[in-house]
Amino acid sequence: MHFANGTLQLHVAEDGDPSLPPILLLHGITSFGGTWDWLTPTLAERFRVLRLDFRGHGGSDRAPDAYTSSGYVTDAVAALRNVAGRPCPVIGHSLGGATAAALTQRHADLITAAILEDPPLGLGDRPSEGDGGDGNALEGNALLDGFRLMRESIPQLQRSEITLEALVAILSAAPDTTRSSTFGEMLEADALEAMARSLLRVDATVLDPVLNGSIDPFLDAEAPFEVPTLIITADPSKPDAVADPRLARRFADLSENVEVRTIDGAGHLIHDEKASRPTFKRAVLDFLDRCSVT
Q1: Where are the alpha helices (DSSP H) in the chain?
Q2: Architecture of 2-138+216-290 per CATH?
Q3: pTM for this structure?
């Protein structure tokens, strides 16, 4: 279905019994709601599952020059108010995780719990001195090289009208972001297909604010997270790990009910990785149970 956020029409996929309580799932940059297809059947046993496509992604409208942290947050707020219709838990990966974290600080009345998967908690920050002065969370990260390649190749792929099957084959043979294998070796088959689908629809300019460092901060570094929150970080030894566990623990120290868990051996694409998906799934379901979220 589509709904309005100002002049934009945003797409959200809806699954499960409409009478069940909602849960909102948020994807990472260049991805779309289909990245959560594998988790939806399990969640739909107890939730009305809503998978949002952010502006510029999936089935949502493009918004040139409006790919900002505040813009993404308003997309999530609009989904919560106009589609969910009641406070609910939010799960977000990467960009979606940073957006969900912002919700815990600015719109805690709209959510009941948050699960943040390797979120760039410092994205948009400027370099600073002292403890926790991480600067832009992606400085020196292997993802930036991938983003530069994607920024150049996505428009070419879309103009070429390449088939989904052909793009999946190309991605399968491509080096993964951990620099240790190929995407085909590392990722689940459904994750590869979702990645290909997303690349064929995304507005490549969503990457520009990240690549040029102009994106505004998502978070107030001194404000607590106001709802129960689980921060799941990739293994910090991986070159594509985004959520620095030290920064995650700093937010935990500011907050009353925030847990930090690092998955050993996991890269940034935790829920897509063959080796890490089962651990991620258990962590999500256990946390929802502990929070008595229904």
Answers
A1: 40-43, 69-79, 95-106, 142-160, 164-173, 183-186, 189-199, 208-211, 245-254, 277-290
A2: 3-Layer(aba) Sandwich (3.40)
A3: 0.94
